[in-house]
Amino acid sequence: MLVVLAVLIAMAVAASAVLLPVVIGLGLAYVFNPLLVWLERKLRLPRVLGALLILFLVVVVGLGVFLFVLPHVVSQALLLLDNLQRYCAWLANEWGLDWSQLRGWARQAATDLMGAVSAGAGEPAATTQAATTVPATMPTGWTGQVSWAAVLKVIAGGAGITLGLIGGTLALVSYLVLALVVIVYSFAAFAWRMARIGPWIAGFIPESKRRRGMEVLGMMDRAVSAFVRGRLLQALVMGVVLSLGWMPWVPYWLLLGLFAGMLNLVPYAAAVGCLLAVGLTVLDTLAGGTGAFSWWLVAGPVLVYLGAQLLDGWVIEPVVQGKATGLDSLTVMVAVLVGGTLGGLLGLLIAIPTASCLKILAKEVVLPWLYAEE
């Protein structure tokens, strides 16, 4: 069974890009399962209809928020992209670098790259160098050593890179659309059949150990569902609090606030958003010439972040999540690092629920068995 488990884990890591939408759908089913149970018991609404109703409400609310927030997020993202060159130029000037020289290095690197493309296509290095030193406007009757085959190969290489970028963009968009479809279908499937999962699993447990086994599985289920519900609510609250709190200081307050809230799905990851907020606030003030450096540029966003963390850790998490995982902070940090190293984004999302289930299994099954053997 350990070998089978190891093989399944390896397959899941290898197919994490495919399994991630399924895991998200399962997580959403866990989040809304108590509401489904309430609708089924109180309103006598079948689970399939309850799942469809919840899905409809989530889509409507999500589209409303999306349409309201998206224009502002896109506007701030475009503004950030437009200001990046100004930030880089200011940093180059402060560090004693020549911005025009840096741009020349970038052009030379692009030229060398295209030369490498033509050389990889079979053109000698000397010919490639000659082709890259051709003047922009060739005089009439100029008979320098130009290999038009090399020029065509460079053009073909550039066209290949362009087509690759277009293909990559189309592949990303296709994956996002397919992932959304898989998430919706997985949510509906898990929400509809979640009441049958318990009896189905019970059939694999020997009758003599079935009662105790279902108790242990119930502990795992409560830990995982409470963690998932808690993290989603914490991410939402963190995004709203940081966005509103950073409004007076941070130039891209909505973009960075929502980004930090999304990062809060993984414990301690929202600190990356705080660092970006501080760095961009200082850069925008100094590079734009709108003011001198002040420690409030750093303290303002940091104090808002610390206040959001206190609200998260002392109010939201105890009420929504409680002690469901039963893990201390060091174990949570190690689990996140190990999960991210082994499984990427999927590993980050399932690291803490997996660690919590392993702790419950060790405490309720393995340790009593070892003590009994003694």
Q: Give the CA-based shape.
A: globular
Mean pLDDT figure: 76
Low-confidence stretches: 120-146
The share of residues in extended strands comes to under 5%
Sheet/helix structural class: mainly alpha
The ordered string of helix (H) and strand (E) elements is HHHHHHHHHHH
Instruction: Give me the number of helical elements.
Output: 11
In this structure, how is the largest beta sheet organized?
Answer: none
Q: Taking Cα atoms only, what radius of gyration do you get, to the nearest Å?
A: 28 Å
Total strand segments: 0
Question: Cα distance, first to last residue?
Answer: 24 Å
Helicity range: over 70%
Describe the structure.
The protein contains eleven helices and no strands. The protein is globular, with a radius of gyration of 28 Å. The longest helix is centred in the middle third of the chain and has 55 residues, at 148-202. By secondary structure, it is an all-alpha fold. The model is unreliable at 120-146 (pLDDT under 50). The chain starts with a helix and ends with a helix. The chain has a domain at 213-374.
